[in-house]
Amino acid sequence: MERESLLNPGSTIGIIGGGQLGRMLAIAARQMDYRTVVLDPDPGCPSGQVTDGQIAEPYSSRDASRELARSTDVVTYEFENVDADSVSAAAELAPVHPSASVLRTTQHRLHEKNALLKAGVSVAPFRHVQSLEDLQQAGVDLGFPMVLKTATEGYDGKGQEIITRAEDIERSYESLAARKTELIVEQFVPFKMEISTICARTADGQTATFPPSENVHRNHILDVSIVPARIPDSVTENARLLAADIATQLDVVGLISVEMFVTKENELLVNELAPRPHNSGHYTMDGCDTSQFEQLVRVLAGMPIAEPKLHSPTVMVNLLGEVWVDTDGDPDWARALEMPGVSLHLYGKAEPRVGRKMGHINVVADTVEDALYIATEARDRAWRRSR
Ligand code: AMP
Fold first, then answer.
1. 0.90 exceeded by pTM
2. Among the four 10, 72, 80, 257, which has the fewest Cβ within 10 Å?
3. What class does CATH assign to 125-187?
């Protein structure tokens, strides 16, 4: 495989999408003196506050993505619901990583599942749903419960229905079919744990995988990531190998985040891929010697990637809008930061809304149990809640 040209510090990285992932990527880039330009329509977006430049146009504008490519040395994107055609337009003028083809695969659940099957990766049994009859047949084939999902534009549990009995099929179908996107239904996996791992892959095919995190969701939104995940070492190793295999088979250059279910038999079933940094990898900012964001900068620049190591048990808790809403916009950060090993990361979002990701706290401690206790306590203190 051809080696990407090396971009030295001083070169410019273009980022499509101005959320917190772009912001943290831009901060990591700045540490190594790379410049960044973000494409996002919102002039006050989290990334735009820290990048060197911003193109305040819609993501779907091909002219804007071409302008981004022209003004930068390499382009990436920080969320999947970006228009793949505008990513392809950028790719005519600058290298784009991961490729538009990886984006197309991962932004459509059906394409993603088929690509995983082709790569020999285990996933929950699923069916493509094009009609009510398809869903009824899936009920017979897969059994209950099953999870009906929109094939595109679903995240944080949006566009999902759990169907527990045949009588609910019609109502669930009506509710999701109204979204006018393709549907997929999966067997419900009675997992014992959800984990994820992030693999970096370079243009010349080297891979390096971050330690898997154990993820706890609340209302379908990531709440807590615990590292090391409390699973046998053999499962951890399998997860890392699986992520590297997926990165290689999909020919990813950049990061690929792999969300998996761990079954009671310690089998791994892949649920979802994201070709970008991931919320469950925020722990790497304080728990590893190289963060997921630094690793991505290295890949984009064609620099050697690190073999990331966890230096201490680390727990991340998300800070959602409710922490602000419940405290009249005045969380008690001073009390949170009294706790040992706490790092506070805030995303600069002006408007807190319930369920909106506003920041996170990382806690590094001697044991996972201590980190978990301190992280939860720190968040409760900021939230002015007592347990
Ligand atoms: P997703 O949008 O696919 O990441 O799903 C969001 C969350 O819904 C996952 O993190 C799981 O907690 C749950 N979920 C999704 N698919 C399934 C499934 N097939 N079986 C059990 N739980 C699921």
1. yes
2. 10
3. alpha beta
